[in-house]
């Protein structure tokens, strides 16, 4: 019963937070795309916030709800414009570090914090190198990779590996489908940020089953 209540609370808080920041999101967009007015960020944040309610401590839940709200905003802007604005993603890096440090202080999981920092730095460097050779990646994706890497790293290296692999696999599958249906030509690009977020969630929840080590 308690887990159901905390999941509901996480969903409610994240959804309300994303709704309250709608104006901020629109101001940081550079277009008038219809999706920006669809309030899609609210259900995205609510779903991720509900999953955050499964965290073991209030400090972890707080960190993951904040990430859920930011993920909702970033998903919508990236789908609309294929960009991740610095006004959202840059402050999210130190905020994530501070909140995970708080979680480590509350839970005593200092090794998890160290692993999160290492994973965030590793994915930042790896995606930065990939950006040089891939037209589909921008520096916003590099910074978001650091954040999702830290999130997965809190749970384990298996989550990091599976989360990043899942992001690329789903990204690649959708690209093939769009090419096959002629809704995308070979030189066009599309948003990678939502796949990083989706992959990170899959990595955290499936790593224990797929990669038990």
Structural summary, described in words:
With 213 residues, this protein is mostly helical. The protein has nine helices and no strands. The chain is globular, with a radius of gyration of 17 Å. The two termini are 30 Å apart. The mean pLDDT is 90.
Distance between the termini: 30 Å
Mean pLDDT: 90
Number of helices, counting only DSSP H or I runs of 4 residues or more = 9
**Structural class label:** mainly alpha
State Rg.
17 Å
Number of domains: 2
For the largest beta-sheet, the strand count, sense and barrel status come to: none
What pattern of helices and strands is seen along the backbone?
Answer: HHHHHHHHH
- Inertia-based shape: globular
- What fraction, in percent, of the residue positions are helical? over 70%
């Amino acid at each position: 019963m308690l887990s159901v209540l905390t999941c509901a609370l996480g969903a409610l808080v994240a959804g309300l937070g994303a709704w309250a920041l709608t104006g901020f999101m629109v101001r940081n967009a550079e277009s008038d795309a219809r999706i920006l007015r669809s309030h899609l960020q609210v259900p995205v944040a609510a779903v991720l916030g509900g999953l955050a309610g499964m965290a073991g401590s209030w400090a972890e839940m707080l960190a993951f709800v904040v990430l859920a709200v930011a993920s909702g905003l970033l998903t919508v802007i990236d789908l609309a414009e294929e960009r991740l604005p610095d006004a959202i993603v840059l402050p999210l890096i130190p905020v994530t570090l501070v909140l995970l440090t708080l979680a480590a202080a509350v839970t005593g999981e200092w090794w998890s914090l160290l692993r999160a920092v290492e994973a965030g730095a590793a994915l930042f460097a790896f995606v930065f190198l990939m950006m040089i050779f891939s037209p589909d990646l921008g520096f916003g994706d590099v910074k978001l990779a650091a954040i999702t890497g830290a999130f997965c790293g809190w749970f384990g290296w298996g989550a990091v590996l599976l989360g990043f692999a899942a992001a690329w696999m789903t990204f690649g599958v959708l690209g093939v489908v769009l090419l096959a249906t002629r809704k995308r030509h070979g030189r066009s690009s599309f948003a990678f940020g939502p796949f990083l977020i989706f992959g990170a969630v899959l990595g955290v929840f499936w790593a224990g089953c797929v990669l038990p080590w």
